[in-house]
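Contributing: when you submit paired examples, paste them exactly as shown. First protein:
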Amino acid sequence: MVMNLTDLKRCIEDVIMTPLDHKNLDKDVPYFASVVSTTENVAVYIWDNMAKVLPPGLLYEIKIYETDKNVVVYRGE
C-alpha cells in the first residue's frame, strides 16, 4: 500500500475541496488574488498544496479535466 486511502481523502478534503469547492476563485481564494485563475494555475495551486501534506516523493501528477477535450496535466515542472 502506497498510502492509506482515508488519509488521502482527508488530504484532498483539506487541500482541494474545502478551499476551492463552490468558491469564486478570484474573490474567495487568496492565492488567486494575484494569479489568474486558469485551469493551469489551479493545477499548480493544487500541486503546491498537496506536496506540503503528502509524504515526500509520493505526488506524481495533478490532472484536471476542464472538458472532455481540454485536460491539464501538471507534474511539478
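Second protein:
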Amino acid sequence: MDNSKRTVVVTGFGPFGEHTVNPSWVAVQELKKLGLGSEVDLHVYEVPVEYQTVQSLVPSLWKQYHPLLVVHVGVSGMATTVTLEKCGRNHGYKGLDNSSFCPDSQCCIVGGPDCIDSVIDMESVCKRVTASGLGVTVSVSKDAGRYLCDFTYYTSLYLSHGRSAFIHVPPIGKPYSGEDLGRALKAIVQEMLELLDQAEEKIHCQQHFH
C-alpha cells in the first residue's frame, strides 16, 4: 500500500545570525504536524547553513527517498509575504556560511547552467493559493538571494531536472505566526502536487494518442 503513496521531502534551515531558531524550520515543523494528507509520505529535514553540508545532504535526500518533489524553505529578513522562488542561480556566492566558508568557485555546480527554473508554475500556485482565502499573502520572486537558500535551490533543481521548489518565509510575527506559516506551506505544497499531477496526466494522454 505504501507504494501508492507519494513521497515529498521538505527542508528548513538551521540557526544563523540573529535567528537562533530559524523561522523556516519552525514553519516546516508546523507543516509536519498538519501533514499533507494520507496519500503523501512527508519527510522533513533541518539543513545546516553550510555550503559543504548542502552539497552532500541534498543529493542524499534525492537518493534515499526518490521523492516526487523536494521543497526547500528559508527565511528572508526582508520578506513580509510568503514568497515562491521561480529559479535558482549558479554564480555569485560570496557570503560566508556558519563555518566561515565560501566556495572558491563562487558557484554551485561548475559548468552548470547559469539559471535553472522550477518545472512548477509558481505564478499559477500563487494565484490558486491566494484565491483559496488562506489569510496569508503569497508572492513570486526570481531572485532567491545568492546565499545558502539560492545555493540549496540550484543544487536541488540541478539534481531533479527542475522538480524542486523554494519558499521564502518572513520572520515569525512579521506578520505571521509559525502556525500561519505551516498552514500556508501545506496549501502551497498541495497546489504544487496538484500541478505536477496535471502535468503527468497530460503526458500520459499525449503518449496514448501518439
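If you have annotations for the second protein, write them as plain sentences, like these:
The chain has one domain: 6-208.
The mean pLDDT is 93.
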